[in-house]
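Loading example: each entry is read as two labelled lines plus one structure line.
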Amino acid sequence: MSNLLSLRPGGLALLAAIIAAGPLVLQNGFHYNVAILAGINAMVCIGLNLLIGYAGQISLGHAGFFALGAYASAILPERFGFHPAGALLTGAVVVGLLAFAIARPILRLRGHYLAMATLGMGIIISIVLDQEVDITGGPDGMPVGDLTLFGQVVSGELAWYWLIGALLFVTTWLALNLVHSPVGRALKAVHGSEIAAAAMGVDVFHYKVLVFVFSAVLASVAGSLFAHYNGFITPDEASFIHSIQLVTMVVLGGMASIAGSIVGAVVLTVLPQMLAGFHDYEMIVFGAILMGTMILLPEGAVPTLAKRIRERLA
Amino acid sequence: MLAEFLQFLFSGLTVGAVYGLIGLGFAVIYNASNVINFAQGEFVMIGGMATVFLMKAGLPMPPAVALAIAGAALVGWLLARFGIETAKGAGVVGLIIITIGASILLRGLAQVIWDRNFHPLPSISGDAPIHVLGATLLPQSLWIGAALIVIMAGLRHFFAHTRTGKAMRAAAIDPLAAQLMGVDVRRVVRLSFVLSAALGALAGVLVAPITMTYANVGVMLGLKGFAAAIVGGLGNPLGAIAGGLVVGIAEAMTAGYLSSAWKDVVAFVIILFVLLFMPNGLFGRAEAERA
């Protein structure tokens, strides 16, 4: 039991315990607000980490998928009378199909080219949301209605906390299963050496597309939840800087570490709140964290710490 | 009709030349180190903002510009020395993230050291427009074109005829072989950052009279410069300039004939198109990085 985080049941139990213990620590609405946002970010980061950390494919455009999910939940119930849950699912399906359609040509690119292609895709989405004022309200954004599940309106910080906590748990469980399945091992092989993986009979491309679509759908669902929780969205949700924030969370927590993604999301959601009084320095801190992590802890915080603890115990 | 077209063409060529200059910086660094420097746009910002604030401090324009370019070059050296070199072993993704971090850090520093406002910079030779066949041309556009030509000629000479330039080319072709031949590859990488920071800063000074300058001016300019470099074929300096002109003209035509709201989309649609159908760029070397 030297490393709880690498053991599936242990890690999941730990996560469940932390989520369950939340209300003991969280004291007011503001605390809950930060916790809920951290949970939503963590869901996106887990998907993104499967793509970046496990499959070794960078995406600088995931905020685009997040925003598409958010706008689906804002527009479909309001204009077309969709049930909010139906809108969330429709958004997820549409984003999944879109991701599948673009993954096929885009994922044939590598390295810088892939970074540029995903970045371009994200920026195109954000400009479209910005310009289609009639549908999206343009740069001013638009309000989003309540989320109803099983006839109940989800309202209040506590209800949202449990909903996001439960979904984060399910996401983590799904991701861990994926990582420890043949798909996960194939992904690791792809990350190690695409050529070697292909030579061993791994359908490299198929797995890359699969993970890209899965991560896009997760981002879309998280975007929908964010839209309902926040009650208001703007095209900034799709911005380049938001994509970078998501990548930063993944990198800080640790690539190829599901626990790391959760930690990265929590730290980088809480940190700006703590720096609120030093708003001017927020970007400096953010940039320094990004550079510093990559230079000093290239594997990210959680894998590096886990390794040190293991060495200490050994 | 013609006048209108010419007008759009002039404005496209002007911004295109700036994108090309920025794209040139991407190409120089990419050749030397295989790094895509996402902080390239911030060099552009430093060039413009430093000039503005040095002039506010009472310096005349020429020394202010020279100091601003030197300052950006210093930042480029620091980034290469402490950002890129200390992260030896980081992969493509890691290096991309480091330069993105540097760009956010530099933007944050600019907001704190300078401010968040928009600043104009005087044109080099006034704003009286020149009339050409019914269209108007700003003198600044001519300066930008002239600067581009001088820099192209200078770089050509540098890479073809100087020892350092040849060493940089050798390192770009095969770093290991160059190292064995006595080329200090680390120095080459630092020099490439210094050179492209200076190029970016110059672009920033040239474009500021037209677009104004501010702490976040580098974000879009950097991305468009990257687009120029990709369209021209990564690592091809002349291609980067041609790519910049293509992107600039396409943007200006879209803004003129369709809607200015959509002009930023054009660059990225072109990028996706080029990446998917011509991954080596319009003028790139035949070295596809596709699976």
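The radius of gyration of chain A is 19 Å.
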